[in-house]
Structure prediction request, 497 residues.
Amino acid sequence: MSKDNKYHFIIKFVDFRTRYISDEAKALPAKEMLAQDYRLHQLQKLMNFIRRLETSDGSEKSSDNFLVEIDLSPFESTEDMIRQSPNLLTPISSPEITTEKARQQTITSSIQNFFDSRESSHHDTTIQLFIATFSYDFRLLFRAITTFVTQLTEFLQELNQSSVNLQITLLEDLVYIERPYIMENKHKNFFKNIINNYSDESHVDGFSSGGIHITATVESSNAIMNEWGEGDTKLVKILEFQHPYDRVESYWYRILNEIPFSEMFNQGNKVPRLISIQSVEDPIVGRPLYRHPNDEEPPNIEMIPLVREIMALVEQSTGVRGLNHVLIQHYRDGRDNIAQHSDKTLDIDKETPILNLSFGCSREMFIQNKQNRNRKEKIPLQHGECVIFGLLSNQYWYHEVPKDVTMSKDPLFGTSRVSFTFRKIATFVHSETGCLIGQGSPFKTINDYILRQSHSSDDPSEQTTTRQDLINAFGKENRQSKDFNWEEVYGQGFLIK
Prediction:
């Protein structure tokens, strides 16, 4: 039992036929088996997360009783389930259910023990059900879920628990699907039907039955844990950017009118978004420089007061200090996007994550593992929230913001989103000599440059590598993950600007 009178369960509906056959009764392709393995991996992470929640009060109780697995294999169809009228609250465990070491304790006995352990049964209580669906028969799944919720509601009423909030969360990343996050109509309709089943006109925010208030949402396991990629990526809400409305409106007006946006080109093509690059010049080593593959980009200007103000609030909210560079991108509508890539870390401080703050309309960032393309996760990019993107995630995962032609128009933001990608840059353009100094340069300090100058008749800023060498190095980082050796690829430094 957690401190906030909230009890958590993972309800896993499994169909072992799914492991071996698809809708066409053919053997599952290898890629689907990899996706299945990834879903099991995510489920185990979620279980560990809930175990921490359940023991957050410092109790020593073992909280392994929150997983309930319901085997749908015996039912040939929805009609077969109706005919058999199974009691899903006391499922018969299959011998194959061993991977998560689920306890045989039923959900009813767990809830009974939960209420018995409380001093009073008259306080509001929330029972959170996280539903994972390992079956391809969505009609059967819908029937199973609604039957389970109905039986659970009746059980709570029998316990005379009239002040219980039953929260149902469908785990969109733990649903049977052949390609991650490529939803077909059957998936969308399944989610929609479950949500609609527990809402009505008189209860906009949910559905009530005999005093039990029921709500249903769709969310990913990553969003619940606030953890993506390699575990070093998370979301932080920055309340100063979210309310009151007058302040949000003021920020938005200033962003659109004070930031100088320009076009940028890559391989001769105009990128589908507008760009502004700003930084804070260091009085000793010069202006921070972030290099990435492009043909032509806007000038790197001194950070304007508005952006400094925003950056200070980001540092305060995330605890990340020393930011000195920002790439601001204006996505004008759902057609504007950024293709799949990894950020180039030649010039990024090795100890500091990348921060991405969203203003305006919501979009979605998808990250995809470089080695297993069936590992794909979705990060919601909502107004006033900042993604702390860890460098390990950047090394092992691609990220992108794809097109979204279905997005609706917001009364304030229209169809626009502005992102602020803040970084701590460790390479600088020296203000006096124009030479590159720092992490991504052959001259790690200004003294290295001076020493080279005093011992050589050559111009120390002379290019020893070509632009193509730099592009090739960027390409290696973009393609490689565990085999990428930063020192081997970038360690010698580049003088190409």
Summary: The first helix runs from residue 30 to 54. The chain is about 30% helix and 25% strand. Residues 20-28, 59-64, 93-104 have pLDDT under 50 and may be disordered. Residues 6-225 form a domain with the Rossmann fold fold (CATH 3.40.50).
